[in-house]
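Office hours follow-up: a student asked to see two folded examples consecutively, so here they are.
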Amino acid sequence: GGEAKVVVADEPVSALDVSVQAAVTGLLTDIQRERRTTLIFISHDLSVVRYLADRVVVMYLGQIMEQGTVEEIFAPPYHPYTEALLSAVPIADTSVQKKHIVLRGELPSPMNPPSGCPFQTRCPRKIGEICEAEMPPVKELSSGHKIACHLGDNELKSMEPVIAFGEKDGGKSQVAKQSKAPAKRTAPAKRKAPAKAPAARKTAARKVTKRQQGPTIPKLMSKPRRGKADDLKLISGVGPKLEETLNQLGIWHYDQIAAWTKKEISWVDDSLKFKGRIERDGWVKQAKALAKK
């Protein structure tokens, strides 16, 4: 077969059942990793996009509405169309709370798009005539994260997560939400290294400490590898890039993530600069469910 440098996959899993989808996405990931192939993956299913992609471009009627890294696209602020797409992601976990956003009106013809913002005929956050008359400006909310919208920066930044995981605290279910401007968390205190640490643990610690100069790696973050590295693919949101990062830390199995406490989650967020504590809580919930099978 050909050794393609770029592969365009247009809705490759949309008509497949869940088990076949997993096999196809796993194959695409293997090709991407082993042959260093650039994959342009086109889909309306953001849960699959999140698993495969490093960067995401959200389009409506041929116009780019939002673009950024996976972490930026799946955490507020969102473009209103991205917000609606996220609310349509199917989630079977009953502990997850999700906003229900319904788009009204007919989908305009791509051959005869509306004036102004392409999304203005169906946008639930439409602010008036400016949306109908003028193309929205492209706002760069952070490095590489751009949104084309007439909404003000403050209104965009005040958006709450579409998907939130419930947490039990004192018998009452609470929803873990991202704050608008998260305060810096205090890093865990350094712990004395054991007298004889495994070689794999030392290597992982050196890599992260040299690069981040962060706190000592918690014990559960540096277990030695056992078996194959493919187990992390079973956790939604852990794509090839994140999987490689976790492998460098000695994390190869979902049962290791299932054992994470708040300390390990905080260490991941603080030291690796990931966005969204909610996502890490979700990883643990998924890993625990997988470990019970």
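And the second, which I mentioned at the end of office hours:
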Amino acid sequence: MLPEHLHPDLAGFIETVRLGTVSDAARELGISQPALSARIARLASATGAPVFTREGRRLRLTAHGARVHDGALRVLRSCEAMIAQCRGTEGAAAPLRVGTADAVPKLVVRRILAPYIRADVPVQCREWSAEHLESEIRSHRLDMLITDREPIALRSDDLETNVEGKSAIVLCTRKSLAPVARRNFPEALAHLPLALPAPPSPLRERIDRWLRRHARHARVMIEAEDRSLLHHFAQTEDCLIPVAKATAPLVERQFDLVRVGELAGVEETYYSVRSRWRVPDLG
């Protein structure tokens, strides 16, 4: 939230957009509802058009209001960066707030963040679904997002998107099940249980398409949003799991698994989305 003393009209406007009603925003700000309504009316007058239209009890941004909101958020980021810099102890860097989608392999996350850690930038990691983290970075509660989903909705002048890598996908399982799975692969998958990422996810969609072409009668026994949980299932249960080929050697050693075969044509891409205002440029 924008520090209220820096610009009370913008603070009230941003909080009203976030919460959806003037009454909820006024309560959050600790002011009266008429006072907040006056702030919003003053902002609308200053910018030349209404910023909200009413839908029942809730408010919806007008096209003009959406433009004002974008500008207000730029002011928010500038103020946050200035305050963090001024309040920080001498020589200390502001923490880098990073959201990591739970589908991204931890090895990939570690590789992306390693340069910041080596540069003594404090890092705070939060793991959640890609949808939730996209909302968090749009609301400027995150400085960086690491995701397996192409962040089309996050394209803006203030966010920079980079492709951090791609990987083919292989199936792995316990050593005792591997000979059966390798025999007549991929047709053998029709008789073997699979443990797959829970839908909806980009990787699951690609695997489902592959299965429809190559193993239509394959049986999904376990679904999980957290890919690392699938590794633990494969370690103790008779099932096959998809693993990024780039991380397969590490996963195989850690969980005593072996590779069965590659899902030809199936790959996943890893993206980082970074705030141009908050993420240090390491050159």
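Two things to take away from it. The first helix runs from residue 8 to 19. The chain has a mean pLDDT of 87.
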